[in-house]
Amino acid sequence: MRPLRPPPAAMSQARVILATMSMGPGMMNGGHGMLPGTGRVRRGQEMAEGKKLPKGLIKRVWQTFARPYRVRLVLLVVTITIAAALVSVPPRLIGAIVTLISEQPPGAERLVTLYALAMVGVAVVTSGLSVWQRYLSSYVGEQLIHDLRRSLYDHVQRMPLAFFTRTQTGALISRLNNDVIGAQSALTGTFGTLAANVAQVVFVVGQMFLLNWQLTLLTLSVLPVFVILAKGVGRKLQHLTRQSMVLNAEMNTVMTERFNVAGALIVKLFGRPADETEEFGASARKVADIGVRSAVVGRLFFVILGLTGAVGTAAVYLIGGRLALSGAFTPGDVVAFGLLVGLAYQPLAALSNAPVEVLTALVSFDRVFEILDLPQPITDRPGAVDLDRGGRPVRGRVEFDGVVFAYPTAAESSVESLDRWADMLDTTPGATVLHGVSFVAEPGQTVALVGPSGAGKSTILGLVSRLYDVTAGAVCIDGHDVRGVTLASLSRAVGVVSQDPHLFHDTIRANLGYARPDATDAQIADACRAAQIHDVIAALPEGYDTVVGERGYRMSGGEKQRLAIARVLLKDPAVIVLDEATAHLDSESEALVQRALRVALEGRTSLVIAHRLSTIVNADQILVVQAGRISQRGTHDELILAEGLYADLHRTQFAGSR
Fold first, then answer.
1. Which of 119, 118, 113, 87 is nearest to 100 (CA)?
2. What average pLDDT does the segment 625-633 reach?
3. Full-prediction pTM beyond 0.70?
4. Residue 429 carries which DSSP code?
């Protein structure tokens, strides 16, 4: 926020350009280095420059996020107005003192003392208003950041999986950090400054008219120069603001990808640290170039503004001095008028560029709303019921009835600014990947899916948890279409152990408790014993309080799998989905995981993807998936006798054991 007390002349003039640049490259320079590859950066810049703000954005900001804080915002404007009115008082007091000193009428000494004390009183009141103003702006700003971040986080968490497969993680982080702070600055900074400038112009120019209206009009005649300069610079800085936001998002993406364990490992294994640094440096150079351009443009505006202000002030003293010599003006009036001119030029120049400043500040709100406006296709439908309503246990009967599925288009699952490769998000419908898939898994049965990579096995299992919605047909649990039940109850009914289970960078206890936050230590330990992992945890120096590291990298593959099984056991679902849970384990780890799975699957419906056929020979039903269709189904023995893909896979895998 602009200080309540008038700054020195140079600082006063500097605020014109600083207000315009408050969200510009200064923010961008906070994180040097962008996405390697000039083409990607250039595309992002073109997207930034071509984007226009939607109509009704200000109204939406006021009616949504600003609504809870309207009282404090009104108090903030009132405080700013009073402070702006006080700004014009010291010049008049100084002018009166100068006149008393020059004319020395009777009682001048007492009046000089009173005027000096009045200046002190104005300073005290202004200081108090400054503290109150700071409290109001800080309260509104911090609460707004909280509301925006919470809304964004909640909305993103509820987006379908397709959104995350296309979206850059760093870009999302940027929206939650840089853009949210920029939006807060727009509401409490830019609009507060605008209110302060309007109030100061009204009071200061009003005082100037009271002193001499002809001289006031003369000093205001230089404003067209301000208008032309401010508009030109403002448009340029608006482009730079969008570029800086795009570059910041891409920078976050690069750091997220390169600085996690997997990314760092790839860089090291391929010997690319020097290349990464070189490409990163090239992108950082682009950031520096933008910073230089914006600094030069801003400084040029600052210099011309200073010269124009100096010429205006000189004209005041030239003409005002002649009027004083002729007796039409007092020396104090000349001094007061000169001080008022210095206080008028800065807010007038800023107001001439106010539309561009507001638009530039609203860029952050636009980028926040861009995410909040993304549709959430996977939601509870009106009238959705709980699978376990009334305390009735879920039996776990899973039925696929003529399921057809095509992945959503890019335009349906992401936005252009979050996809680094997008010149325009594709709206072409995706190819159909599942064609009339039908099967039934009765309660307590194990149904295995086998087939070549890319056949659609993982897609089938993803539909059970409603990570996606079917294009046609239905997926039912206990006779209820999963689209008609609540997501919360579906999550309670279905547990998943994936090929590469994810663990948060937290303790073992916290990772296990994620499935059941109210679980006791005894329940956690029992789940780990069933998952064949308790003894390993107990042998660790910190036991269940051991931090597993990012993505669980401090644990072996088999240990992570068994922790994932323990987590599912704590959840106690009726249906368990295993997506190649033992695909990349050594023989010893696989044996331990298989023992854990026997406990986990007991009495539960299980859907299993397995490349190692030895793990599913006892399955109640085996489905052979080819090109999105079920080409064979039956038990292990039935499929061996029937010949076909399953028998071929079996012969291939067991040929070396004969």
1. 113
2. 92
3. no
4. P
